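Render this sequence as a predicted structure.
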Amino acid sequence: MKILIKDQENKGFAMARIENKRAGVMTYLKPSPEYIIIEHTIVEPEFKGKGVAKKLLNKVVDMARENNLKIEPECSYAAAMFKKLPDIQDVLK
């Protein structure tokens, strides 16, 4: 699985690809230079249950750490994972 982060001026996304197919996408907004808001997580039906969403979240968390950003999880999946996983709560806004 390859995960690419595409960062734009006030938004961005992480996209997972498996065998040249889009497996999932996690979108985020950048309302300020200090934090991002994870907006949506979408996993394509054929890739559900393969850990795609968690790998997308981990990639976004790594990007936030590298850039000293906090994350506000608006997406229900991301919000649930931030409550469940203490090892990523250091970037929680």
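Summary. The mean pLDDT is 97. The CA atoms of residues 3 and 59 lie 7 Å apart.
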